[in-house]
């Protein structure tokens, strides 16, 4: 039976070995907590690092680990200390984590850690491939494994791959600072479905892909090498029932069953009629805004002295990544702040902050959630933040107030919370006052809607929607009927060519024989290309036609002394070997005066675009324009031109990053067909890459071998990948 392979850096269990026996504890953190319920309820295998460096393993430990992990349907990827340092503490947590959370000042650009990141990603990919069976689906998680999707796709192109990013995807302006930005994007694009928590992260990603890689996106589908990749937002939910039921159980427990944590909480709550608890829970991380929260709490105590003695902040911070310098500094800063605030305000019977620096068992988390009147969650940046959702899920009587930072992904789904800016201490202090004095009815109204949403859209729903997208992706993305020119089709083409008595070849130039250049003049034919074309030309009974949208002058300069037939400006001009240029159609340039100024004004206001003046046509090129702006301006320009050309016998041609205006009826199809008059060709080949070549594909006789370069919408019979492949085929024809 086919299964889902889940891959994340850490497994849902952490292992420790003591005296030849193995201890496994659940992993903390949002990813592990969320995916655990998906893993437990489905047919899946989870791959990740066990938490023990290979250097710490004694003989036989690997078998112990393997057997223990098998019970949890897990498989370990082994990492040594050097790999953990470079991949995890290094590139993942000193480069990607800070950068993606907009902490540019903490971001290190270190080539050596990137190299290890790459090697470890390959290790994960190899392990996945080792465990992969036909029909399995792969679901890769998070920022430590950005390169893995492509590494798998290259070896197993038919496997369906999903990728989910649990942290924010930053704006293009931040992402572009990464020296490895292209490789990382290409890595993620090995997936078929890419998921983010929010639409903002999704649009940042789409914009980075378009601007950095230049790939086109149609709404949220990226087109890459004939593949359609779906990008969407799937806000992660929690296991609502688990938290809600645990809270219900907690409320029914007898005094004798209470935990020590609950006992201490009750002592505080019973000390004063108006005693209240404010809760904060996070991993100790600079993104979580813990220092800001403490400062805002101090500001609150200064400005609302009526809450002294009555209110206590319970702050739980789980130790995290303590090997990374910034986390050590943060720990010191928090210790000092807690010390300072408690020192300033404490009295014999009251300390304003209870601070715990440790992980807590699930039951104690529930004690804290259910006993707290307010949850104060103030991250500076947070992909989602599950604690906010967990707090609401445990409020079985629907009381309690959530104060939530607008910088957490969760804020988008929880507008009933008191939403704050984590840098605005005054707003946080005022919100604390508002929360502590909020009428019960209002609390119930707000939490009723929140709970309804969290219950419906829980983690199972989240996972099933993602899986659904993954299973349906091939229906959503465009299906093409064009076939690749595979080995068989290629052999057939060569065979027909060799057997033919009269052959003619129509070859487009830019994007077909030569790759695009930033500056069009730089796409000049290389001596090697010219020599290859000469070899084709020298074959008996073979006519070689280079057919282009380019202007006559440029082509004359490049090929004027070659014996090929040249057709330029989409079929306006023809030059036969040894003959002069002749105009194929009666044309005029009188209309330039009304159109050229419009194009010039677009070129002036669109940085990177240029106007090209041909003898009988005008073109506006936007290859070097920011792709999003370029497409928008192209649309605008087209609309403007449509009104201007209405009565002029002109038409607009949309090529690859170019809009061209020319006399209507002149096109590559018409001029190519003229070449066939008076001759009886039994082999016709036509190759081209853009929309203007479609005229040839459409108008040439049925038996023409039509080949599109690049897999785009086309009426051609076959497609091939790029210019390199075109040249490869031409070479085979001459062999
Ligand atoms: P995290 O940064 O780990 O997750 P979060 O979403 O808040 O942040 O999840 C923390 C999880 O750890 C919660 O499930 C919570 O119950 C648990 N936890 C917290 N403190 C604990 C303690 N002291 N003891 C035991 N358990 C504790 C990353 C992203 C988030 C994103 C998640 C999920 O940074 O933005 O929400 O992944 O995608």
Describe this structure in words.
The chain is an alpha/beta fold and 735 residues long. It contains 25 helices and 30 strands. Strand 24 and strand 25 form a beta hairpin. The radius of gyration is 33 Å and the shape is elongated. A nine-stranded mixed sheet has the order 5-4-1-6-7-8-11-10-9, sandwiched between helices. The site of adenosine-5'-diphosphate-glucose has 23 residues, from helix 1, strand 12, strand 13 and helix 14.
Layout of strands and helices, then pairs:
Blueprint: E1 4-10, E2 13-18, E3 21-26, H1 30-41, E4 44-49, H2 61-71, E5 74-76, H3 81-100, H4 111-131, E6 137-141, H5 148-155, E7 160-164, H6 172-175, H7 181-188, E8 193-196, H8 199-213, E9 217-218, E10 221-224, E11 227-233, H9 240-252, H10 260-271, E12 276-283, H11 290-303, E13 311-318, H12 325-345, E14 353-357, H13 362-371, E15 374-377, H14 386-393, E16 401-405, E17 418-420, H15 425-436, H16 440-456, H17 459-476, E18 483-484, H18 487-499, E19 503-508, H19 527-538, E20 542-547, H20 552-559, E21 565-568, E22 573-575, E23 581-583, H21 592-605, E24 610-613, E25 617-621, H22 627-645, E26 650-655, E27 658-663, H23 668-676, E28 683-688, H24 694-699, E29 705-709, E30 718-720, H25 723-734
Parallel strand pairs: 1-4, 1-6, 4-5, 6-7, 7-8, 8-11, 12-13, 12-15, 13-14, 15-16, 16-17, 18-30, 19-20, 19-28, 20-21, 28-29, 29-30
Antiparallel strand pairs: 2-3, 9-10, 10-11, 21-22, 22-23, 24-25, 25-27, 26-27
Helix pairs in contact: 3-4, 4-5, 7-8, 9-13, 10-13, 11-12, 11-15, 19-25, 21-22
The protein binds adenosine-5'-diphosphate-glucose.
């Amino acid at each position: 039976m086919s299964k889902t392979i889940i891959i994340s850096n850490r497994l849902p269990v952490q292992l420790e070995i003591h005296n030849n026996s193995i201890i496994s504890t659940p992993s903390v953190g949002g990813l592990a907590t969320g995916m655990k319920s998906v893993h437990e309820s489905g047919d899946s295998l989870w791959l990740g690092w066990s938490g023990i460096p290979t250097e710490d393993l004694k003989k036989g430990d690997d078998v112990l680990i393997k057997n223990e992990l098998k019970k949890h349907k897990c498989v370990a990827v082994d990492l040594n200390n050097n790999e953990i340092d470079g991949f995890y503490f290094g590139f993942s947590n000193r480069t990607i984590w800070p950068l993606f959370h907009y902490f540019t000042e903490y971001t290190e650009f270190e080539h050596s850690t990137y190299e290890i990141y790459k090697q470890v990603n390959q290790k994960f990919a190899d392990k996945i491939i080792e465990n992969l069976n036909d029909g399995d689906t792969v679901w890769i998680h998070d920022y430590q494994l950005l390169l893995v999707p492509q590494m798998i796709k290259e070896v197993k192109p038919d496997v369906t791959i999903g990728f989910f990013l649990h942290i924010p995807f930053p704006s293009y302006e931040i992402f572009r600072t990464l020296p490895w930005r292209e490789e990382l994007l290409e890595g993620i694009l090995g997936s078929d479905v890419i998921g983010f928590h929010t639409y903002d992260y999704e649009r940042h990603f789409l914009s980075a892909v378009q601007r950095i890689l230049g790939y086109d996106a149609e709404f949220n589908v990226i087109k890459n090498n004939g593949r359609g990749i779906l990008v969407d937002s799937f806000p992660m939910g929690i296991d609502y029932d688990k938290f809600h039921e645990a809270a219900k159980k907690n409320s029914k427990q007898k005094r004798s069953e209470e935990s020590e944590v609950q006992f201490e909480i009750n002592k505080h709550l019973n000390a004063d009629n108006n005693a209240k608890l404010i809760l904060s829970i996070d991993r100790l991380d600079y993104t979580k805004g813990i220092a800001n929260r403490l400062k805002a709490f101090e500001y609150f105590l200064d400005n609302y002295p009526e809450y002294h003695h009555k209110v206590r902040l319970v702050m739980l911070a789980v130790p995290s990544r303590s090997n990374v310098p910034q986390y050590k500094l943060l720990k010191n800063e928090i210790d000092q702040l807690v010390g300072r605030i408690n020192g300033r305000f404490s009295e014999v019977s009251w300390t304003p902050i209870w601070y715990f620096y440790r992980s807590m068992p699930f039951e104690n988390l529930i004690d804290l959630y259910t006993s707290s009147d307010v949850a104060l969650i103030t991250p500076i940046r947070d992909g989602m933040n599950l604690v906010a959702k967990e707090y609401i899920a445990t409020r079985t009587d629907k009381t309690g107030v959530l104060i939530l930072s607008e910088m957490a992904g969760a804020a988008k789904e929880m507008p009933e919370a008191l939403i704050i800016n984590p840098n605005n201490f005054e707003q946080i202090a005022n919100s604390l006052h508002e929360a502590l004095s909020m009428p019960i009815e209002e609390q119930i109204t707000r939490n009723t809607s929140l709970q309804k949403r969290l219950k419906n859209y829980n983690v199972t729903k989240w996972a099933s929607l993602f899986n659904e997208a993954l299973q349906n992706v091939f229906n959503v993305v465009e299906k093409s009927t064009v076939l690749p020119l595979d080995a068989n089709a290629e052999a057939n083409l060569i065979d027909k060519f060799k057997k033919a008595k009269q052959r003619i070849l129509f070859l487009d130039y830019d994007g077909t024989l030569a790759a695009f250049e930033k500056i069009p003049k730089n796409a000049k034919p290389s001596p090697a290309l010219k020599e290859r074309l000469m070899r084709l030309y020298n074959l008996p009974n073979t006519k070689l036609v280079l057919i282009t949208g380019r202007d006559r002058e440029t082509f004359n300069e490049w090929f004027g002394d070659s014996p090929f037939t040249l057709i330029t400006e989409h079929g306006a001009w023809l030059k036969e070997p040894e003959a002069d240029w002749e105009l194929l159609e009666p044309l005029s340039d009188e209309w330039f005066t009304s159109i050229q100024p419009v194009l010039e004004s677009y070129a002036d206001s669109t940085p990177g675009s240029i106007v090209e003046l041909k003898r009988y046509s005008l073109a506006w090129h936007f290859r070097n324009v920011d792709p999003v702006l370029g497409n928008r301006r192209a649309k605008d320009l087209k609309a403007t031109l449509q009104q201007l050309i209405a009565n002029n016998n002109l038409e607009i041609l949309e090529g690859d990053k170019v809009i061209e205006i020319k006399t209507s009826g002149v096109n590559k199809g018409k001029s190519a067909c003229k070449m066939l008059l008076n001759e009886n060709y039994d082999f016709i080949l036509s190759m081209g890459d853009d929309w203007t070549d479609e005229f040839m594909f459409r108008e040439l006789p049925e038996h023409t071998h039509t080949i599109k370069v690049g897999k785009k919408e086309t009426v051609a019979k076959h497609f091939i990948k790029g210019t390199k492949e075109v040249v490869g085929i031409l070479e085979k024809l001459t062999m």
